[in-house]
Specification:
The protein is mostly helical and about 475 residues long. The chain has one domain. The chain is built from 16 helices and no strands. Helix 1 runs parallel beside helix 8 (about 170-185) and helix 3 packs antiparallel against helix 4 (about 90-120).
């Protein structure tokens, strides 16, 4: 099938830009509010207490993410076609499976969070008086049932609702942090605020998804049977495990540096590093939201056989994100020190050089994201997992080595070199895969082969090693 004959290609760019616009507006405001929350917390707490709060949150996010399946990816990969065909029984079987994954994962997330917390609590620097509330924060992982609802909203192109949901955490934190600053809230108060924000986002996403399913007439019959872990079709478990491994690697890359910064250089530096990471996450969130929009569209293009169009979109997205990151890093380098001192407090000027390096790293990582989306759309999360694992391993090894030798300057260089390695590895894998497919089946048959692989046997992707 040629690109010109692809019905899904009509208005594709416009739909992508519209959905990116929804998410970018939500993510940008969420990041800005989040930075305002950090500014308030920096005035209410000592830098060491702020570091402890951020370390605790990073720890719980890492433990929860390790146990959580990214069931939304399986829902999009295997649910797009039955939903477009109006095959609600098949769609419901898939939904019951992904809901079963979410419930099981939430239970194990709570167990893992509590167990790991009891083992590593001393490394987090938590004072004894917040032990009980921190333990309760770990147990809150049991309410994390957001993945399937997120997939539902993405399938229905309700990125406006996803953007609305993105405001829950920063708004709850902003209200709670403001009250804490006004009335002298201590570390315990701020942990409670972070818990309330997590509870709000865990509750809101399922409500929005159920509302959308009901509005589309797709809710009736869904709960006629219980959620299950029995796969509705062959190969889904393989896809789920591979996508979960890749997502876990991605989460380690996101949360582990903050934990390492605290363990190697202390809670105060962890606070500085986390603030810098949140600044760089303006670009990182942009890359992730672009991925959220790109992935369903790339799946549709792969099913339709429009491979060349998909490649053009991937290349354009990578170049755009890299250029945006370089521009942002230059702005932070020039104006950052005075802005951080004014916005946060005296003593936070040193955030600027760290943030400059992390923005460059985020730009390199962002340029890699569309390549991962393309590999996922082909039904091959193993490729993304392999390259991401290598890049994360390089980053962590460099982080520990350079933090011990260069001290505060080391983590930034580790992040930049690790992200550059990830971009090079992902690009190399993508090129090798393209040549391998052409050698195996011929360039003329590539579109048909990929279309068949994605639509009828995406659950049986090529071996993850290639």
């Amino acid at each position: 099938m040629t690109d010109t004959a692809t019905p899904q290609s009509d208005g594709l760019v416009g739909r992508i830009l519209k959905n990116v616009g929804f998410l970018f507006g939500g993510k940008t405001s969420a990041v800005l509010i989040g930075l305002a929350v950090l500014a308030i917390a920096a005035r209410a707490l000592t830098i060491e207490e702020l570091g402890i709060l951020l370390l605790l949150h990073a720890f719980i996010a890492l433990m929860t993410g390790i146990a959580t399946f990214k069931s939304w990816q399986a829902l999009i990969q295997f649910g797009t076609k039955p939903l477009e065909q109006g095959d609600f029984p098949q769609f419901h079987r898939l939904l019951r499976f992904t809901i079963g994954l979410d419930i099981t994962a939430a239970f194990f997330a709570a167990v893992l969070s509590v167990s790991a917390f009891l083992v590593f609590r001393d490394r987090l620097g938590l004072p004894d008086e917040v032990f009980g509330i921190a333990l309760s924060y770990c147990l809150l992982s049991a309410t994390n049932l957001r993945s399937t609802p997120l997939g539902v909203l993405r399938l229905y192109d309700r990125f406006d609702l996803i953007s609305l949901h993105d405001q829950a955490v920063p708004i709850v934190r902003l209200i709670g942090a403001s009250l804490g600053l006004a009335f002298g809230g201590d570390l315990t108060w701020f942990i409670l605020v972070w818990m309330a924000a997590a509870a709000a986002t865990n509750l809101l996403m399922p409500i929005l998804a159920l509302r959308e399913l009901a509005r589309r007439g797709a809710l009736k019959g869904l709960f006629a049977k219980r959620p299950t872990l029995k796969a509705p079709r062959k190969g889904i478990w393989r896809y789920v495990w591979m996508s979960n491994i890749d997502a876990t690697i991605n989460l380690v890359d996101k949360q582990m540096p903050t934990l390492l910064a605290g363990a190697l250089l202390g809670p105060a530096f962890a606070a500085l590093f986390k603030i810098a990471r949140d600044v760089s996450d303006v670009l990182g969130k942009g890359a992730r939201l672009l991925n959220q929009v790109l992935y369903p569209e790339l799946v549709r293009l792969m099913i339709a056989g429009s491979i060349s169009r998909a490649i053009r979109i991937i290349v354009f997205s990578s170049v755009y994100l890299l250029a945006a990151g370089i521009a942002l890093s230059l702005l932070i380098s020039f104006f950052g020190p005075s802005l951080f001192a004014a916005a946060l407090d005296q003593g936070y000027e040193s955030v600027a050089p760290i943030a400059t390096m992390l923005v460059i790293a985020a730009a390199l990582m962002g340029a890699t994201t569309p390549i991962y989306s393309g590999l996922y759309a082909l039904g091959n999360p193993g490729w993304a997992a392999l390259t991401r694992a290598l890049a994360v391993t390089i980053t962590i090894v460099l982080f520990v080595t350079l933090a011990n030798t260069m001290r505060e300057a080391g983590p930034g260089w580790a992040m930049v070199i690790g992200s550059a390695s990830g971009l090079l590895l992902a690009s190399l894998v993508a090129v090798l895969r393209a040549y391998g497919a052409r050698d195996a089946s011929g360039q003329a048959d590539l579109s048909a082969d990929v279309s068949d692989e994605t639509s009828s046997s995406s659950a049986e992707p090529p071996a993850k090693s290639g």
